Amino acid sequence: PGIPVDGALVTFVAPLTGASASIAGNPATIADGTAAITATANASSGTYTVTASVPGVAGTLTFTLTNVLTD
Fold first, then answer.
1. How far is Cα of residue 51 from the mean position of the Cα atoms in its chain?
2. What do you get for the CA distance between the two ends of the chain, in Å?
3. Coil, strand or helix: which one is 35?
């Protein structure tokens, strides 16, 4: 348990409204023990949570991200 399995798919979900990000490379395939995506912030500032899950694995992992708008 808790050991990444190469070839497994990890799905990342960001909020649909408010501060969020579009996620490229989703779902991500685990390779060499890691899964990578690119999150691009939307035009709303604020903090939000992205959730990662793997089918057949109990529980999820959450990441807290913050969008900061600049002039």
1. 6
2. 46
3. coil
Report the distance separating Cα 57 and Cα 23, nearest Å. 21
- In a 13 Å sphere around the CA of 34, the CA atoms on its Cβ side amount to 2
Contact 23, 35 (CB under 8 A): no
Alpha-helix runs per DSSP H in the chain = none
**What's this model's pTM, rounded to 2 decimal places?**
0.88
Tokens (6 digits) for 27: 């779902």
What pLDDT shows up at residue 66?
A: 98
Residue 29, Ramachandran bin (φ over 0: left; ψ between -120 and 50: alpha; else beta): beta
Residues found in the chain: 71
